[in-house]
Structure formats: C-alpha cells, structure tokens
C-alpha cells in the first residue's frame, strides 16, 4: 500500500463529500470537480500550489498538485432557481442547487440578497463567501464564488447559491444571490417578485442592496419587496400550531458615497407635507415601510478601492451571519435536503396558485415527512430489537418494555418539534408497535400449544416402550440385581430419552411437567416387579439349604484320621473326594439353577460356600501332616549344620598350608582339587545320617542346601586364591610400570635438541632398569612357583617396553635430523634463488666494471643469512653440510660471472674496432652518394654505378678487418645494410622528384591546352604563345638550366610534343569549320 507522502489529498469544504487522492501532476479545475464528484464548479484550491496556470482574465485554470500536501477545493455558486420558458415563466429548482443543499447538514442559515441590477450584489456575496484567511489571500480579486460582470450587461439570472461554514462552527450559511429587480434583459419582469416571495418564505435574513446612496427609487423598490411578502399566506390549520417565521430585512448601501445610518433612514421615512397626489403617494410609501419593518437595520460598504473596504466587509460578514438565524420550523432545524424540498414545493405552489404561496402547508409537509422518517426509523429499530418467533420463546414478555422504549426514543428525537403532527405521528407509531408485539404474542401462544401436544405424545410412547421391557407377572424366575438395577436405569433412560426428544421444544415448563408425570408412572411399574421378585427369592433359598445339609453330613463321615506324617497322595485322594461331592451337589441343585439366572447365581454361591467348608476340613489334615514334616526337617537341618562345620575345618586346613608369608602363597591347582574332593565327601556322609528320616522331601531339600553350601565354600576357596593371584600381579605390574616410567622420564629434556651417538649410549639404562625390577620383586619370586612365573612374565614385558621406548627415542632423533636437514636445504635453496635473482643473467649482454662485479659478490652476506636462519636448528652436522654446499655453489656462480665478463670485454673491444672501420667506410660512401635534395632525377646507370662503389667499399672492409681477433660475424652485413639504406634513400628521393616533375609538367601542358579554347581566330599567334609559355613554365618547374638532367630534358620534350599534337588537332578542326562555312556561303550565292 502506498504511503500518504506519495499522493496529494484534495477534500471539499462540504461535509458529505469524500476526499480523494491525486498524483503530483497537472489538473484542471474541471478535472478536480470530476474527481470529487461535485456538481458545483471548482474555482480554486487552498493552499495555492506553487505551479498554477491562469486564463486570459487572470482566473485560475489549472494547478500542479504537490504530493504530501492536503488541499481544500473551493466551490463556486450553483444555480438554484431558474425560470421556465413560457407565458408565465414560473420558477423551478435546478439539480445543481438541489445537490448542493442535499450535502449540507442542519442547522442552515439562509441569507438572500435582492435589489437592482448591477448594484454589486454578486461581488458582495463573493466577498462574504471568503471565510478563511487563506482563501482571502488566494483571491487577489480574482476568486469569485458568484459570477461577476464588469460591464453593463447583468450576469445573474434567477438565483444562485453558495454554502460556506458558519463562523460559530455549527452549521452552514446559504448565500443566495437573486436576479436584479430592474433587469432590462430578463424575459419577464415578474421574476424578481417571485424570487422575493420565495426569499421571504425561506430566508431568515433578506438584504436589499442599493448602489451609491438611498433615493426615492430605493423606497419604491422596498415597497415592491413588501408587496412580494404580502403574497405569503400565514393561516394555520390548528390553534396549537402557529406561523413562527419572520424574515429580517436589512438595507445595504454598496459603495456608499455618504454616511448611511438609521437616523438618515428615519428622516427619509418622515411624511412630506402637502395634499397633492404625488405627496399622498409618497406618504403612503413611507407609512407602509414604517408599519412593516419595526426592527429595521441599515448597513453600508465603501467603494472597493477604499482602504477600509476589507475591514468593513469583515464587519458586515460578522453582522449578517450573526443576525441570521437557522431555518427552524415548529422547533425543527431543517437540513439542507429539507430546505431544498421547501424550495421545490414553493416553486410548484407559485406556479399552481399564480404567485401566492402558503409556506405553512409546505413546512407542515416537510415536518410531517421528517416525523414519518423518524417514526419509520424507530419502527425498524423496534423490529430489529424484537426476537424472531419462529419457535416458542419464554422471554417474549420481557420485550413488552421495548414498546415504551421505542416511544421514548421517538419523543427524545422530536422533543424540540412543536407541531400537532408530532402527536398524530406518535399515536400511529404506538398502534403499529403494539400491533407488532401482540402478533408475536399470539404466534408464541400457538407454538406453546403445539409443543404441549408433542410432549404428551412422546410421554405415551415412552411409557408403552418401558412396559414392554418389564417381565410379566407372576414371575417364573427370580430377577438378578443387575436386572433390577437395569430397570431403575431404564427409568432414568426413559426420562433422559424424554428430555432428549423434547430438546427441540422450547417451552421448558411444558417439558418439566410432562417429564415429572412420566417418571412417576414408570417408577410405579418398577415397584410392582420388585415385590414379586422378593417373594420368589425366599422360596428358592429354602430348597437349596435342605440339599446342602444332607451332602455335608455324608462327606464328614468319610474323612481319614492322620496320626503321623503321611504321603501327599493320601491327602490328594481326600481332595478328589471333595471334588466329587461338589459335583454331586451341583447335580442335586441343577433343577433349581435351571429356572433362572438368579437361581443359578444363588446355587453357585451356596456350592462355593460348601466347597470352602470341605476345603477347610482338608486344610486341617494338611496342617497336621505339615507339623510332622517340620519335625523331620529340623532333624535334617541339625545334620546339615554338622556337615557345614566339617567343611569349614577342611577349608581352614587348606588355608593354613599357604601361610608361609603374611600374605600367604598361591595354591596350586592340585591342592585346590584335593580340598574340593574332601568337601564333596561330606555330602555322602549327610545321606548316611538322614537314612532313617521319614519325610524324604525334607531330606532332599536340606541335602540340596548342603550341596549348595559345599559348592559355595569350594568356590570361595578358589576365589580367595584368585584374589591373591590378582594382588601379586598388581604388585609385580606396579614395579614394572615404575621402572618403565623412570626410564621414559630420562628422555624428554634430552630430546629437546639433537644428540650424538656417544651421548645416546650414555642414556641407554635398560639393563639397569631390569636389575632394579629384579631387586623389587625378589621376595615375591621366592614365595612359590606361581609367584615366580608371574615375576618372569612381567620381566619379559618390561624388557619389551624398554626396547620400544629406546627405539622411539632413536626414531625421534632421526626424524629431527631429517627435519633439520630439510630446513637447512630449504634455507640454502631460498638463498641460491635470491642470489640468482640478484646476479645478472648469463651470458652477459654487455661487460661490467670491476666495481660492479664486486657489488654482485655478496657471498659473505648470504652465508651470514644462512647462519642466522639455521642458528636454532639442533642438528649442526646437517646444517654444516648444507653450508658447505651453499659456499661451493655461490662461489661457482660468482666465478662464472667474472669469467663471462672478461670474455665479454674482450669481444666488445674487437667489435668496437670493427664498428669503427665500418663507420669510417660508411662516411666515405656517403660522400660518393648524391646529396639530398636531388637536383636531377637519377637514371638506372647512376644506380648501377652506386652498386659498384658499394662493392668496392665492402672489399676494403674485409681487407681492413682481417687482422682483428674474433671479429663479429655481422660486421660486414651491418656495413652492407647501412650502404643499402643510403642508396634506398636516394632512390626514394629520385622517385619522388620524378613523380613531382611529371605531375607539374603535365599540369602546365594541360593549362596551355585549356587556354587554346579562347585563342579566337589568331591561331598561329596563339600557337606560338602557348609554346613559349610552356617552355617558361617547364624551365621554372625543373629549376633552371643547371638543374636539368637527361630525364628532365626528355620529359619536357614529351609534354611539348603533346601540346603541339593538341594544337594540330585544333587547327584541323578550325580548317574544317572554315571549309564548311565557305561551302555554305557558296551555296547561298549559288542560290
């Protein structure tokens, strides 16, 4: 969404016109009118944009709106009343003025301006309409809300209106500019009277305007205005209503030349003495004015050019707008839309009653429409407050107070209206509201009856359903408790089902009463079933008790007598007999349990009780037998304890044999097996001791416990021996680890640098560490063979650890040596690379001085750099070896440089000698070559002669350089190239001179040939002149007689021949022309 800063906002001063957003571009005033959707013309905007365009008359035509600025559009006047064409020319309200009034809210103050044409009414209205300082500054005498003319032709036709805000901030002011009373260009002179009648029927302030001063015609016009007022009927239809409208009339003198006040007016209204007809008519005018206007006000304005005009206009604006009351009838302040309706009705009534209007009926109609609109609004709001009665509503009676509330709302909205129509409208509204409410009540009553019938049908259906679910009486079987509880739950279900089915009903009282009746009836049905079931249960219980007593007596007579411990199968037989007795009892009671579920449960419960009684008797037999078993078990326990004591003695003896040291010694596997065999013999002894015990189960149980104890004792002996092995191993391993750590601790400081083999041999203390380990475990070794084996294994592991540590130290030293050697090689390589970059490339391009060579010899600096960069390397032998190689390589490089420089110096001396010989011969050759610039063009023979001279110089060069040692191979070629270059320069200069002379001579010849065209008849004289001119031109071109060579002479002769050939052709042409002319003459003479 775009922000506010991207648009310009334009709003209208009228309240009901929405503001619009515009882009920062050019808009005409018609464009703004279209955007705002207003029907009145837009005549300006405030604040005034910086970029504007004006028309020829200086009025604003278009503006360029600035984004981010809020503008207010200023509306001009809209036509309100125009007169139709025809015989009577009755007025009608225009749509533009009706729209303008339609957007104005109440209250509205109407000020009407009447008077003669061209007296300044429109100008005064326009100035009064400038209600803001910004608008006044913007105007600059060009912002006129009303159409203003500056010539004798009237501008206003009918009545135009403008709406401006009231200075108090409440409501608006309607300024109405009327057509002049003496408009000579109007179609009908009655227009003014019709407008005045309408003005007095609506306006609260009528201003009659006069220009310059008050005259007798002014009083006449006021009388005409009063006559228009007389056309208004003030009769009312009721004693309660009254015509409370009285328009104030003010006289405004525009551009007053003299002081105008009430005293002046009073003097003018005094009757004049005399009895003449004129005097009587004038006195009649004055009496009418004095009787009609008791509170007459008089105002004046200076000329527009007067400096006091702005202040006077401000005072006039304050006075008129303060004195003008709002349009109010019967206590109702009319809105703009209602005022427009009044104007329309007044115009219609003027046309219907031929100029006579009755405003009371018009205003009564407007008030009636207003009251009816309010009543309709209250009625619609009352309808919205009433609940929809599509179902029964219990709270509908509570809405009866809404009728009184609606009437009170109507009274509140019409409290200031004093018309008799108010009470009539209120009574009609009350009847309508009560009718609406009573209709809802009747509909609600019908809905209640419908719900009562529906609830009754639901209750009967549920009673029938419940009765079908109950058993029939008398009962053929007893009922279960669950069934009885289910019947109770069925009661609740029926009630819940009733509530559920009645949930769609809205009358809670109907549902509650019908539900209570249903619950009482189904509970009565349940009570009858319970009473029948109680009698049935008593009968069944008596039959079951008789059968139980007979079976119990028979079973007790068959139980055995237990005097000592017996086997379990005897008691198992008794239990099997109990089961058979129970099965027999079930068979005896089967005919009862088959009658129903409750009988079955009762039978099972009594059989269960009988089974418990039998099991109690069997349990007593088993308790007696278990007492005998406990006695036998105690005997077995005593024998077991004796065997356990013997096992402890065996273990003690085995441990005593290993007590050669405070810690003991480790038992061998053979000794452990012997102790285990002795412990196992105790189990056999237990079996012999318990052979006479009757309860074999107790014997077996205690035998298992003894075996478990013997096994556990044997395992404890083995575990104790294993713990001793573990402790010995830990002690031996600790001694081993101490020696390994001691050996390892000798190397960290020694490994900080590189060491020689002799230093390393001094650190090899592996044998000493082994000797220290043997001394530490010597006492442990002599405890027994197992301890000796453990010590030997630990010594072997220690030797392997020491060897691995020694190997790691040697590997670390070798790695350090390789690392230092690689670092030294890297430093030497960088220095060699630097030396190569500092030394000149080989072979040398030119020889160097001895001082320059010494500057390149920086071997000492390179060696110092190497020593400083390898000072921290611990492996010095590797560093020294690389240093020797660096010395050797740098010395070789410097030696090669010196040798190459010496060879280069020797070669340069030879080359210099050869070049000197070549330069000398080249100088001599240049003396043989023609000097530049050339005076003649050279011929091929001249160039052949130069080639011969060049070969002779080359032979001389070979003879002169045969004594030079190591002459350069390119010496002869260099001399030859120099001589060829010199010859080529001369050749080019000769060609350029040849081309230049050719072009110049041809141009001179062409000039002479061209001149032959103007030679006339003196052919021979022109021919001689052309030859002489060409010879002079040719001599000038070739540079005189001394500079003329063979080529120049030949070329001049060729061009001269071309000129002569052209002259011959011209001569031939002239002869031919002359012959043709003479032939023509002869033919003429012959004719």
Automatic annotation (TrEMBL):
The keyword Transmembrane helix does not apply. GO terms for molecular function: GTP binding; GTPase activity. The keyword Coiled coil applies. Residues 103-247 form the Guanylate-binding protein N-terminal domain. Residues 389-423 form a coiled coil. Keywords: Coiled coil. Pfam families: GBP. InterPro entries: Guanylate-bd_N (IPR015894), P-loop_NTPase (IPR027417). PANTHER family: GUANYLATE BINDING PROTEIN. This is Guanylate-binding protein N-terminal domain-containing protein. It comes from Noctiluca scintillans.
